[in-house]
Amino acid sequence: MGYFGAALQAESTKIKKSKMIWITLAIFTLAPLMGGFFMFVLKDPELARTTGLLGDKAQILGEATWPAYFSLLAQIIGVGGLIVFGFVTSWVFGREYADRTIKDLLSLPVHRSVTVLAKFIAVFVTCLLLSLYVIIVGVLIGMLVGLPEWSSAAAMEGLSLLLVTTALTVALSPPVAFFACYGRGFLAPIGFVIFMVVCAQIIAAIGYGAYFPWAVPALFSGMTGTAGGLEMISFFIVGLMAIAGFAGTVAWWLYADQH
Q1: Which residue in 54, 79, 187, 203 has its CB near the most CB atoms, within 10 A?
Q2: What is the pTM of this model?
Q3: Are residues 200 and 215 in contact, defined by beta-carbon separation less than 8 angstroms?
Q4: What pLDDT digit, counting tens, does each position of 187-236 carry?
């Protein structure tokens, strides 16, 4: 096994044996459960009221169909994924400083870029698996609820929406990794993620969300009522931010003073 394979295996083992992965898994489990509950209420609101699951004055807008459900799951990934994926990235890169193991990694006879690349791949694979978990659990819950309008075309369109939203959300992880290294811990990247999520809501509300990378996943998922429909400039901005975050993280490991 080469240096890269050993580094990737080490990062994967850290993630599998950490409590972080179980916390994020538990958080993401709530997402399809909430989505299924909303679909159940929308499908039969009177039954929900008579059974006490919904108040008499409560109103939930929308429709209980598979396309609407896929869009809801995509919105959950587009918004919640920013926080969950940011938490995963903060842990993978920030724990080396918090646990004071950064000096051990820097002393290894391996090029630092190999370690950084292994960490990024471990983060991306973990985030993709978390999203796949949400999709599988969500589909099972949707079948249990008995949503109408299921078809192969609707399933393909819904899965495409979920996968692209996931890719856009995961692509915003590299800047979080940079702030984890720059801040030498967890607080700076988590604060950065929360700040970006708040800014995304404000900028999207005033109509410029398509040009703010942290608002793009939610807009693409259909948060404003229409899924997709973004111009190529939005995808370009997200890709540019991903490249900048990756380059900045690698440059930090290569050139910044490590104490």
Answers
A1: 79
A2: 0.85
A3: yes
A4: 899 999 999 999 998 998 888 888 999 999 988 887 765 555 688 999 99
Smallest Cα–Cα separation from 179: which of 80, 84, 97, 77?
Answer: 97
The set of residues, in sequence order, having a beta carbon less than 8 Å from that of 259 and lying 6+ positions away, is: none
Q: What is the DSSP string of the chain?
A: --HHHHHHHHHHHHHHTSHHHHHHHHHHHHHHHHHHHHHHHHH-HHHHHHTTSS-TT----S--SHHHHHHHHHHHHHHHHHHHHHHHHHHHHHHHHHTT-HHHHHTSSS-HHHHHHHHHHHHHHHHHHHHHHHHHHHHHHHHHHT-S---HHHHHHHHHHHHHHHHHHHTTHHHHHHHHHHTTSSHHHHHHHHHHHHHHHHHHHTT-GGGSGGGHHHHHHTTTSSSS---HHHHHHHHHHHHHHHHHHHHHHHHS---
Quick one: 138 exposed, middle or buried, by C-beta within 10 A (0-12, 13-18, 19+)? buried
- CA 196, 199, 202 angle in degrees (round to 5)? 155
